[in-house]
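Journal club side-thread
Mid-discussion, someone asked how the predicted structure for our own chain would compare to the paper's figures. Pasting it here so we can look after the session.
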Amino acid sequence: MILSVDPDSDLPVGAQLRDQIGLLIRSGSLADGARLPAIRHLAADLGLARGTVAKVYEQLARDGLIRSSGRQGTVVAPNRGGSLPRGEAATRLHDAAWRLAVLARQLGLGESAAAAALVAAQRELDRLDAPGTDSGRAPDGQADHSSGLVAAEHQPKPPGAR
């Protein structure tokens, strides 16, 4: 799973992180009992203050999505009730596609350029998640200290770029 925050967004980075982790849990991408990264590791990987990540974890715990298990760390809460509302995944995907199409148009690029950018981004995500690869690292090489979450820069460089 990929986590990414955009410091230039109107939405505070804490809210971005909370929304992303919550979505991963509600969609089932993070299963019951899945371990989340330690606060200090996730903060370092995303370039955030520890307090920001701690507040996100506190909010998610209050919402019943995660729980702290002492030595086992922070995990997805079992029987958290509620899942991604019907149709929300499709709506979110459509909204993201719309933003990509608008950006491509603003840049004077066509459908093929937007599609190529989407395919390249998906391949990069697949590479990060592939078994037997260095899937515990973000595109910038930072270590991921969790079991499946990868902290990625907001706008990773295109494949092959330096």
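Post-session note: The helical segments are 13-26, 39-46, 50-62, 88-106, 111-129.
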